[in-house]
């Protein structure tokens, strides 16, 4: 993926991320339509806890190696805004369930807002489960299945790239370099293989809702997510934990998703302002990308039978690719941004690359390093040619499009001339002379 990032600028990333949030509005409606009152209450509580009360810091007991136990002030309400909103809305739904305001009638529109609808899942779930490889049998492989999943994977990769940019934007971190992108996609692929082996039934990919949760809670600590990963592994061995999460009423889920997906969409649109949005060229590129990203997948879902090329495998690929809003919008934005003439300043590439290389302090430059082994990798010259290595120096292609792209992206250039003609160019890319 690092090879393609040279052609990806703000006008390619912005519609991709924005469509992640905008295209999932039907999911919010699906959950919230059960009881719009509870869903609205959840939205209001999240906004109050995160934006109004989140400005205040509460005293709490803390410990550090230098000061020992001491009292410090932390924005606890903001950190726990989503959880607190869910608990209050859940408790409200429980009160309305006990008082039979939400009738115990399957035919009632409010039935799924009750808190006792899925209690049987909690009762039937075993306490301890240990998944093991190929528990549900050996995998089967077919050409149609492979091509269909390949198309879905490519669509997921585009969405994941948008998630990476969105997470960096929310965390005020530098734009991920190509090596970090390559590693992230590779890890998703490896994790998907393990998911299939364990019979999970789905692949593993970046989840947009987590990016939105970072923006709401302002929690982006690496240690927090490492601890969360350990807790998820431990909790996955008990089906009771997952069963408890299924008890959350649907309108509560819809309200939380409404805030989170709205934040993701706004983050995507904010990336477009790296470019000159006073330019009619850029407004057209962004507008067309968003429009086709919303309309073309809708057409595919409603009239998928119109896609009939004579090959069932090709039909499946086209349906998956054209039916994914993020893929359609991202590809459309990338093509238009690279085909329609525009200066690097107008396209936002200058600010985009400056953001990618800044800030230059040692802490920020190590954000995307691999812990403990990056210094060792720097001593091995061959690692600079591995796309997943943090010391990756690029492919060093000298063809005209690549040289032009590097020039537009701000690469340093020193031309060696002879008799007025350029015979050699030394370019510094990522601190490596090519």
Question: Can you walk through the features of this model?
Answer:
The protein has 434 residues and is mainly alpha-helical. It has 20 helices and 5 strands. It has helices at residues 10-22, 25-32, 36-52, 76-79, 81-98, 119-124, 143-170, 178-197, 208-217, 222-235, 239-245, 250-271, 280-302, 312-322, 325-339, 344-347, 349-357, 362-365, 374-378, 400-408, and strands spanning 58-64, 68-74, 412-418, 421-429, 432-433. The chain has a 3-stranded antiparallel beta sheet, with no helix packed on it. A two-stranded antiparallel ribbon has the order 1-2. The radius of gyration is 25 Å and the shape is globular. Mean pLDDT is 79; it is low at 359-363 and 396-434.
Helices and strands in order:
Blueprint: H1 10-22, H2 25-32, H3 36-52, E1 58-64, E2 68-74, H4 76-79, H5 81-98, H6 119-124, H7 143-170, H8 178-197, H9 208-217, H10 222-235, H11 239-245, H12 250-271, H13 280-302, H14 312-322, H15 325-339, H16 344-347, H17 349-357, H18 362-365, H19 374-378, H20 400-408, E3 412-418, E4 421-429, E5 432-433
Antiparallel strand pairs: 1-2, 3-4, 4-5
Helix pairs in contact: 1-7, 1-12, 1-13, 1-15, 2-12, 3-5, 3-12, 7-9, 7-12, 7-14, 9-12, 13-15
């Amino acid at each position: 993926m690092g090879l393609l990032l040279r052609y990806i600028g703000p006008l390619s990333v912005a519609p991709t991320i924005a469509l992640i949030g905008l295209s999932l509005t039907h999911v919010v409606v699906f959950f919230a339509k059960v009881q719009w009152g509870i869903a609205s209450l959840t939205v209001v509580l999240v906004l109050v806890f995160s934006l109004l009360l989140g400005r205040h810091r509460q005293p709490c007991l803390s410990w550090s190696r230098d000061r020992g136990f001491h009292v410090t002030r932390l924005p606890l309400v903001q950190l726990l805004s989503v959880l607190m909103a869910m608990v209050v809305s859940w408790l409200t739904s429980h009160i309305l369930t006990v008082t039979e305001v939400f009738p115990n009638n399957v035919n009632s529109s409010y039935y799924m807002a009750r808190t006792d609808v899925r209690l049987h899942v909690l009762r039937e779930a075993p306490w301890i489960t240990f998944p093991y490889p190929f528990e549900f049998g050996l995998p089967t492989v077919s050409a149609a299945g492979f091509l269909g999943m390949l198309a879905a994977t490519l669509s997921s990769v585009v969405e994941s790239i948008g998630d990476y940019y969105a997470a960096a934007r929310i965390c005020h971190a530098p734009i991920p370099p190509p090596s970090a992108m390559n590693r992230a996609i590779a890890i998703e692929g490896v994790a998907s293989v393990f998911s299939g082996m364990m019979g999970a039934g789905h692949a593993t990919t970046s989840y947009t809702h987590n990016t939105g949760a970072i923006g709401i809670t302002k929690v982006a600590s690496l240690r927090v997510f490492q601890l969360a990963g350990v807790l998820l592994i431990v909790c996955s061995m008990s089906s009771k934990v997952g069963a408890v999460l299924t008890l959350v009423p649907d309108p509560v889920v819809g309200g939380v998703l409404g805030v989170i997906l709205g934040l993701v969409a706004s983050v995507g649109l904010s990336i477009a302002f790296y470019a000159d949005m006073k330019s009619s060229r850029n407004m057209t590129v962004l507008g067309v990308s968003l429009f086709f990203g919303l309309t073309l997948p809708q057409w595919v879902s409603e009239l998928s039978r119109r896609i009939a090329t004579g090959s069932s495998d090709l039909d499946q690929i086209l349906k998956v690719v054209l039916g994914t809003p993020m893929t359609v919008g991202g590809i459309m934005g990338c093509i238009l941004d690279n085909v329609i003439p525009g200066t690097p300043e107008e396209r936002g590439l200058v600010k985009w690359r400056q953001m990618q290389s800044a800030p230059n302090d040692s802490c920020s430059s190590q954000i995307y390093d691999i812990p403990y082994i990056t210094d060792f990798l720097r001593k091995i010259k061959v690692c600079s040619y591995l796309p997943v290595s943090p010391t990756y120096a690029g492919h060093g292609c000298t063809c005209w499009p690549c040289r032009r792209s590097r020039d537009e992206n701000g690469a340093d250039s020193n031309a060696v001339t002879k008799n007025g003609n350029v015979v050699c160019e030394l370019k510094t890319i990522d601190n490596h002379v090519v």
